[in-house]
Design goal:
2 domains, 77% helix, 158 residues, mainly alpha
């Protein structure tokens, strides 16, 4: 009984960390977008933060499931930067697949863009950077040992 309880406690903690991190990242991007739109008298910041929360939940679930795939650990024996880049690229691909499936299932049509390739590339680079930071922190935590990174970042410096 306690092992199931510990399993679910760990999974909930993982999902909470992933959701929180993604929400912060998406909120920063939404704030930047809102500031640009504000220059054109478009105010929609509240809606953008709501969308950030929904996207963080949807993508957080994809990240939580995908990070446990054997494919994601293929480069764990290589230098850390290779493992981080590998995981970031694959997670970006998986999030794109998940987003495409969501659009097909829920018939969500994105607004037309004057520069669709520029928009696509900027989204890919943003996802790649967001996942690179996530996996770099995870790899550092794994390399240093359990809770060592948390202690270094949040603990007292002596």
């Amino acid at each position: 009984m306690s092992s199931k309880k510990e399993f679910w406690k760990h999974e909930l903690r993982e999902l909470s960390i992933i959701f929180s991190y993604l929400f912060v990242c998406f909120s920063v991007l939404s704030t930047i977008k809102a500031l640009v739109l504000l220059q054109h008298d478009v105010t929609d910041l509240g809606h953008m933060y709501g969308v950030s929360a929904v996207e963080a939940i949807a993508l957080g679930k994809i990240v939580a499931l995908a990070q446990n795939l054997p494919l994601m650990n293929a480069c764990d024996k290589r230098p850390m930067w290779v493992a981080v880049l590998y995981k970031s690229v694959w997670m970006t691909v998986m999030v794109n697949i998940g987003g495409t499936l969501e659009e097909k299932l829920f018939h969500h049509h994105a607004a037309e863009s004057a520069h669709p390739w520029l928009l696509f590339i900027s989204h890919q680079l943003a996802f790649l950077f967001i996942f690179a930071v996530l996996f770099l922190v995870r790899e550092l935590d794994r390399a240093l040992g359990p809770k060592k990174l948390v202690h270094i970042v949040f603990g007292n410096r002596e």
